[in-house]
Every structure is written in C-alpha cells, then in structure tokens.
C-alpha cells in the first residue's frame, strides 16, 4: 500500500459586491473580478485590476465591485521577497476559478508555480502536521508537540515549519481554524458554536479573527459569501480495493 501524500490546500471564496476593511491575509491571495476590476489599497498605494495577487502579511483593503469576485487563497505558496505587496496579474489568471469548477489539480498546480518562489518538495513530516491541522482545527497541538513530531528542538521546529509553509505555526493554526469555521457557518451552522468547535474562545474571538484576516465580520461576510470551495494541490489517491 502506498504511503499517503499530504499537500497544501487551495480555497476559493465567491463573494458579492463588498467593502473589505483593512486586514492581513495569512496566505498568498489572488483576487479575480468576475466582470469588473477590483481595487486593492493600503495607506500609501492602490491598484485597480481584474486580476490581482496580494502577499500575506500586508495590511490592505479591497473593494469588490458589482458582479462580485473570486478570492482565492493558495496555502503554502511563498512569493519572492522582492515582489510588490499587491500586483496586477495577466489575463491568463481568468481561468483560475475554472480550475476549481473542473477540479483540475494540474491547472491549480501550474497557477501556484507561477507565484511560488520555492518549488522544492516540502518536508513530508511538516506536511503530515499540516494535514492534521486541516483535518481537525480543534486539535490543541502545542509547540512542544510540533517539536516532538519533528524530532527537533522547539525553536528549530518552529523555524522549519515556517520555512516549509511560509507561515508561523501559530498563524497556520489560526488559518486552518478560520477556514473551517467559515465553511461550517456557510453550510448553516450557528456562528458561536462553530467558533468553539474550531478552537476559538467564543463568538467575539471568532469575529475579531475574521475581521483581521478577511476584513469583515462573520455576519457581514456570510451575507456576501456565495460559496466556498477547497481543493488540495494534488488529486487524492484512489482508494485501494
């Protein structure tokens, strides 16, 4: 039997016209305006384009125009250090949402490669931990648990995790939890209960996190969220008979 292959995920949030306040993405983001350009800005600069990439950790605002947009997060993609905070992308990125519809993992992988400055294979031990965080965001995995799983000293383990994923261990856990909470709430679960189930202290904690990561509160965000789709970066292995 083949060993399981773990990989990063990709998430497509289909949103209606909306104003997203100042926030910081935890993952590399690509915004595709469905009919009209989106506006991405910070306190010093702005860009209007139909296809825009946004680096993680950059405070910015987004104006989603009438017609809506597809906001795509590419977990684990590490953009070059010298790349601008937000950048206009060429027309070929129009097909990114279609790759989700078609479940075209090869196309998604190709899009990821266009932005990824590090295409070396990730450490399988790190990816197993990433898989566990995706599968159960409520897991109270500590820094000591991470170090034990990797067989490294705690500081070394944290550095290795960030080098592999592009994000700190703490922030990756927050990301996995907020995506899971958004998905459950969009499917009809009660927001307060969803927050607790995914590891947040209460509904207020979930609301603060959503505002800082997405630029919108859960209630307002869900009202403008038409759909959310998550696909792994590689197709799942077929079940053995």
From TrEMBL:
It holds the Pfam family HTH_18. Residues 124-224 form the HTH araC/xylS-type domain. SMART domains: HTH_ARAC. PROSITE patterns: HTH_ARAC_FAMILY_2. This is HTH araC/xylS-type domain-containing protein.
């Amino acid at each position: 039997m083949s060993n399981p292959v773990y990989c990063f995920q990709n998430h497509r949030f289909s949103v209606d016209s909306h104003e997203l306040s100042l926030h910081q993405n935890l993952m590399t983001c690509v915004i595709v305006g469905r009919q009209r350009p989106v506006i991405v800005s910070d306190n010093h600069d702005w860009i209007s384009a139909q296809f825009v990439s946004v680096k993680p950790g950059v405070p910015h605002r987004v104006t989603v125009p009438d017609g809506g947009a597809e906001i795509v997060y590419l977990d684990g993609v590490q953009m070059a250090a010298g790349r601008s905070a937000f950048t206009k992308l060429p027309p070929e990125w129009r097909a990114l949402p279609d790759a989700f519809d078609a479940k075209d993992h090869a196309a998604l992988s190709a899009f990821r490669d266009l932005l990824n400055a590090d295409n070396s294979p990730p450490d399988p031990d790190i990816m197993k931990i990433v898989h566990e965080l995706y599968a159960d965001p409520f897991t109270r995995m500590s820094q000591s648990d991470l170090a034990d799983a990797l067989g490294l000293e705690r500081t070394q383990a944290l550095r290795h995790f960030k080098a592999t994923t592009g994000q700190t261990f703490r922030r990756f856990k927050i990301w996995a939890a907020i995506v899971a909470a958004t998905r459950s709430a969009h499917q009809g679960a009660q927001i307060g209960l969803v927050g607790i189930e995914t590891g947040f202290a209460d509904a207020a904690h979930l609301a603060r996190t959503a505002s800082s990561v997405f630029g919108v509160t859960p209630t307002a965000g869900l009202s403008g969220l038409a759909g959310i789709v998550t696909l792994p970066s590689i197709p799942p292995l077929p079940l053995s008979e």
